[in-house]
Design a protein that fits this description.
- The protein contains five helices and no strands.
- The chain is mainly alpha-helical.
């Protein structure tokens, strides 16, 4: 059973649930979290642009099924493809931050 008694912050909770930074469990959690954020940003930007998944796929040389997978957090995405989808398809700039 996990000990929630000494949790004082969200970071403490994440550590109890998924382990310390660098652990396999924590890395998997962080990867899924980032994919969720990307999928939500993509979905929101596409809707703001009044595009269907099919229209966005046509603009960016991908397939509707690929856009759908990304929006549902189920697909792996290459950075170059992600940039093309946001910049060419949605007229948004992409910036990266490494911590």
């Amino acid at each position: 059973m996990k000990n929630y008694k000494n949790i004082k912050s969200f970071d403490d909770l994440i550590e109890v649930e998924h382990g310390k930074i660098g652990s396999e469990s924590r890395n998997q959690f962080e990867e899924k979290s980032q994919m969720f954020i990307i999928s939500e940003m993509l979905k929101e930007a596409r809707k703001e642009a009044n595009l269907t998944q099919e229209q966005l796929a046509d603009k960016t040389g991908t397939k509707k099924s690929y856009i759908s997978k990304l929006e549902n957090g189920k697909g792996n995405v290459q950075l170059s493809t992600l940039i093309r989808i946001f910049e060419t398809g949605l007229n948004k700039r992409v910036g990266l931050t490494f911590l």
